[in-house]
Amino acid sequence: MEINKRRIRIFDTTLRDGEQAPGASLYPEEKIRIARQLASMGVDTIEPGFPISSPGDFHAVQQISRELQQIEICGFGRAVKEDIDAAVKATQDAGMRRIHMFLSSSDIHLDFQLRKSRQQVVEMARSMVAYAKQFVDRIEFSPMDATRTGDEFLFEVLEAVIEEGATILNIPDTVGYALPEEYGNMFRRVRAGVRGGDRVEYSAHCHNDLGLAVANSLAAISAGVTHVEVTVNGVGERAGNCSLEELVMAIETRKQTMGVETGIVTSEVFNTSKMVSRIMGFPIAYNKPIVGRNAFQHEAGIHQDGLLKNRSTYEIMDPEKLGIPRSMIILGKHSGRHALKHRVGQFGVQMTSEELDTLYTRFKEKADAQKIVTDDQLMELVGAAVEGHVEAFTLTQLQVASSGGKERSHSAKVAIRNNQTGEEHMYAAVGEGPVEAIVQSLRQAMPMAVEFSDLELHSLSTGEKATGEAEVTLVIGGESFKNTGMDQDILMSVAKAFVAACNQAVRMQNKAPSEATSA
């Protein structure tokens, strides 16, 4: 029998606290794009910015409030009239809204930052909540640095704001200091010991300085919190905030045990993560849980063997349900014969035992010389083992030239061999940058329409002989194809990745009729 689960409201502050990360500043139009995606993903509340901080932030909050009528919009500010006025005005057209104000409560903040007494802080909190209550019913109050504030004064501040009409108490771990047991118990003490504490809602806001933001947020949920404040990819001040994707998937994966759920559309998690990463210019760590490149990829032979037999042997989540293209097997020096045979079979290539033995030997030599073996490199090895070409197109030459001066331009020439006809042709194009020139020339070589969707560049080593890796995503026939290329020349790696993705599309097209026949 299905037990009713408690709903956890996801409060996204990527556009406010997340943007405070050094180098993460966003233009108003970028904030609006991200806000639309957050709404599509199903967050409950968006904190789009700090309206008093700049005209751009005010405009972004105002525009998002007007456009996203189905989402609660939170206006943020200090416990100061001018901040509250700006937050109220920026969110006045929202379909649903709350005002969120903060005021320091720990002695270290009072002594060295605010330079105010405890009594002054209580009066400020009381008067500013009362002031905001004239305009908005839903008032969230945050005693900043609450986890380093003693219970006695924390309770005094919270009781004061409840008396003046605060409806949501956010008790933040501002500097990421708390341990999960401490943080959860703090909420239990507040709920039991603060007068009026049973009449308000509770929110958790955790920073990740000790790597405990998600753990602390889960502890708060266990203590009865119903709102959790998060950022996409965990961006934010210093080491960042509680990661939206990690918290949501922890709840989704263990919801039967926890007895809670969220309203997040998990299939949009990956797209949202990539969007924020691109717009902010913040790369995602390879080992980042949920959305990192390695989160659902496996190189070890034992793991690959288990996955090929049953995915659940080494994966507790299905990446495809997160919108992540499945590519669980990475071929490297730790990979076994079973994984190699499986990958070759995916390409529709049938090999004899002798050919597979030859391929495996050459594959191991290649894998020892570099970190991973890309699909295009594997297909070259397969072609050598079966004494023929198995890919539709081969890049045989690339030339790129740049001109200086005010009107800088770049030109590229590529030579492509069509392995089905044996013909080789040269194609040329120009572009504002070398990548654009290469892409335009390669498009001419392909017999299908190709849309260049995405490019990621990575360095795989250091020093003068460093190898660069390009990961290219193309849209062909309405489907996305992603592949990689590696070379000491980073532009060559882009061209290799482009051709590899086109070959992947051709393989899928050739495979479809045979699959339909066998079905």
Descriptive account of the structure:
This is 2-isopropylmalate synthase. Its EC number is 2.3.3.13. It comes from Paenibacillus hexagrammi. Keywords: Acyltransferase, Amino-acid biosynthesis, Branched-chain amino acid biosynthesis, Leucine biosynthesis, Manganese, Metal-binding, Transferase. The structure is a single chain. By secondary structure, the chain is of the alpha/beta class. The protein has three domains: 11-280, Aldolase class I (TIM Barrel), CATH 3.20.20.70; 301-386, Recoverin, domain 1; 393-518, Double Stranded RNA Binding Domain, CATH 3.30.160.270. The chain contains 17 helices and 16 strands. It has helices spanning 28-41, 55-67, 81-90, 107-114, 118-133, 151-163, 180-193, 213-222, 244-253, 255-258, 269-280, 301-309, 337-346, 353-369, 375-386, 434-445, 490-518, and strands at residues 6-7, 9-12, 45-46, 72-78, 96-104, 139-144, 168-173, 201-206, 227-230, 260-261, 393-403, 409-418, 423-431, 451-459, 468-476, 479-487. It has an eight-stranded parallel β-barrel with strand order 2-3-4-5-6-7-8-9, surrounded by seven helices. Strands 11-12-13 form a three-stranded antiparallel sheet. Strands 14-15-16 form a three-stranded antiparallel sheet. Helix 7 packs parallel to helix 8 (213-222). The longest helix has 29 residues, at 490-518.
